[in-house]
Every structure is written in C-alpha cells, then in structure tokens.
Amino acid sequence: MSVSVQKGDFDVGAEIGALTDVAGAGAVASFVGVVRGGEGAEAIRAMTLEHYPGMTEKSLADIIEQAQGRWPLLGVRVIHRVGRLLPGDRIVFVGVASRHRGAAFEACEFVMDYLKTRAPFWKKEETAQGARWVDARESDDAAAARWDKGE
Amino acid sequence: MSVSVQKGDFDVGAEIGALTDVAGAGAVASFVGVVRGGEGAEAIRAMTLEHYPGMTEKSLADIIEQAQGRWPLLGVRVIHRVGRLLPGDRIVFVGVASRHRGAAFEACEFVMDYLKTRAPFWKKEETAQGARWVDARESDDAAAARWDKGE
Amino acid sequence: MNVTVLFFASLREALGVERERIALEAGATVDSLRALLIARGEQWQPLSRGSVRAAVNQSLVTGANMLADGDEVAFFPPVTGG
Amino acid sequence: MNVTVLFFASLREALGVERERIALEAGATVDSLRALLIARGEQWQPLSRGSVRAAVNQSLVTGANMLADGDEVAFFPPVTGG
Lengths: 151, 151, 82, 82
Description:
Helix content of chain A: 25-40%
Strand content of chain C: 25-35%
Structural class of chain A: alpha+beta
Strand order of the largest sheet of chain C: 2-1-5-3-4
Oligomer: heterotetramer
Radius of gyration of chain A: 16 Å
Order of helices and strands of chain C: EHEHEEE
Order of helices and strands of chain A: EHEEHEEEHEEH
Number of strands of chain C: 5
Distance between the termini of chain A: 25 Å
Number of helices of chain C: 2
Strand order of the largest sheet of chain A: 1-4-6-2
Distance between the termini of chain C: 37 Å
Shape of chain C: globular
Number of strands of chain A: 8
Radius of gyration of chain C: 12 Å
Helix content of chain C: 10-25%
C-alpha cells in the first residue's frame, strides 16, 4: 500500500506489474487520468496542479485505509502528479490488487471518487483566453456520496 | 476497438499507453487477470485455456459493441490468452478509454462481466491431485445479470 | 441437410468426440439434434446435462433455434474464461 | 495562543496571502478564526464564500472545530484533483 505525490511521470506497466506480482492476486483493476486537450478557444494549453504538501499524502493514505476496511485488498498504489502538465500527460494512477475482480473494481473506483472530493489538489488551466481555476464538479460529489449509502 | 486471442503475453504499459493517447481521452480504466497459485494440495501448478476459435473473437467483438452502445467510449482493447499458463501469468486484459472516469470504469467492468459469462473460454487446472475443469461461478452469472436490470 | 457438430472442454472429454458431420431431416432444431445424439446410448449422456450451452454459427442460441444446411453447431459447458 | 493559517489555490490568489501567524484567544474555533479574518475588510471577503473548506493539522474539519496552540489551519476551495 503506497502513495506518491510527485512532479515526474510514472511507468504504468511497472506499477501494474508490481500489483499482479503480489502473492494471491488474481485481479488488478487500475485507473489512469490524463490531461484532456480540447478544441478551439477553450483548448487547454497546459494545466498546473497545486497541492497541500503533507495533507495530500495523509489524505491519500486515509482513503486507502478506508478502502482496505471495506474490501479484502492485497495491494493498493496511488500516484498523483503535481506541477505543470501538458495535454496528453498522465495525472493520476490508482491500482488495486485483490483475489477477485469485484473487490478490485469497486475499491479502485472508490479510491478515485474519494480522491476527487477529499484530497487537496487544485487544477489551474491555461487556455488562449487566459488561466482559470477549474471548478469542482457536482457529479464528483455525487459519485463519492454513493459509497456512503446504507451506512 | 480491437480484440486479440493469443498464446503469448502482452505489454500492459503499451496497451494502456495506446488508450491514453486516443484524442479526447481523459480516463482509462483497465483490468488485468492473473493465474492464482494457491497453497498446499490444492495449489495450482498450471492452467490450460481452451477456446472456440472464431466464436471467441466474434463474441468479444459483440461484447465491445454492446459496451459502445451503452457508454460514450473512445477506445476499447481486449486481449485474452489461450494455451498453458503458470501461476502469476497474465490471462486477460481489458482497457477502456473515455472522456470521464464513470463511463470508463463501468464499461470496463461490463466487458469483464460479459466476457466471463459469454465468451467461449474454458479453464483446466493442474494440481498435485490431477487435472480438473474449473466450474463456472454463480457469482459471475450474478455479476453479468446486474447489467440487464431495468432494461 | 448436413451440419457440423463441435464439442468443447469437459463435454468434449466426456463424450470422447471433438467434431462430427451429421445428416438431419429438414426442420431440425438444436434441441432435436441434441435429443438424437443423446438417444445414441450411454456414451452420449453427458450431453443431457442441464448446464450444456449451444451455439449455432458461433452465436449463443436456445434449443428452439432452427438449423439449416451447412450450419456449425457447438455444444459446451458454461464458460470459465477471464 | 498562536496558530499558522494557510490559504490555497483560488482562495490564496484572491486574498493575496499564502500563510500567516495569528494570535487567538483561548476557546477559538475554525469559525471564529474565519470571522476574525473576514472582519479585517474588503480584501478578506473571498473567505466568506460558502464553498470554502477548512483543515486543521491536515485533516478536513467543520467550522465548530476547537483550535489549540500551534495548530496549522488551512482554508481552501473545493478540491479538483484526479
């Protein structure tokens, strides 16, 4: 179970390889988020990710701990980049290993949903019309709230 | 959108890289299935995957087409190995690219659930007690049936 | 009319047959073909298991599916890939 | 008692302040600290937005959270990572 917050890129194949190598793992679900470019005047030229050092790592570790409490997980890896990124660049990786695919898929989506609404990262986009902070999406709050139902 | 049924291994990093490179992609969800080893007399020494050549590719292409009808997908890749595999070997890869993560996660899980119950592959395990065909799991039927609700 | 019949995995092993060409009367269905095979005797009883699935020309079908000359019919146990 | 206050992202830019040491009366809460800052004048109004989140010692908290000497308090807009 490990968390990295870093400026540099990561090696998706190596990360998933480490998860498939965990003893007993039969299923590895993973997610990669990428900077979208877009078209025309709204096209994103670059994106800068600001974060709250210290709290970032703490909140991601807490999210993983919650996932481990809900599903029988054999491995969890979270990587989030910070700093300036260009369209097509990888932003985030979440990988989860479990014996069976149901737990792996659910836990991976849970970690992403919680990361999106609880981990202190903020995106600022640069377009032809200037720089602007990205607004939080209500759909992300709704996605995270799904996991609280029936508790 | 492409399907491969092959004896050889595959490169997870390259496959996911091809999906993140699709224009407009912001989210890539993926799944890797691995041969579990296990412990003691029940430990699996090897596994042989038999399939129905021709129907295999046709059924996987049909599953992808159904997924494309349900979610706005930008790329789908399915690879399934056949022949003799050892514990720790990769069996299957499913990767899905979309603009947003919700569609990518759901479509990836949908493809796996349908693959598990509709694509003509059969596993035979070799243990210290001999070879045996793997029984179908009711939980897989239940997982696939979820997607039919409310239609 | 003639059809090709294929058997896979545990069903192939239990029957001891991998493929066979069979002549059928017009109007035959997947169920009638299956009944004809089971009626051959003891060796063919594994085909009577309720879990046996069928495909015609590489698509899953139900037992009522009508057969045509040249069809490829397959019988197999529930799939276990992935 | 003294606390360190941090501001992030659009809130940091709107306030023009990144961090500050502030002396508080005993019994202060996140809400009372926030009210004290907003009362300073026009520049501090962005802190009154309903969407502003708070963390104490790097954990998300509600406004009623009591503060202690040496606490690190952070105010920021809704997060947008991932």
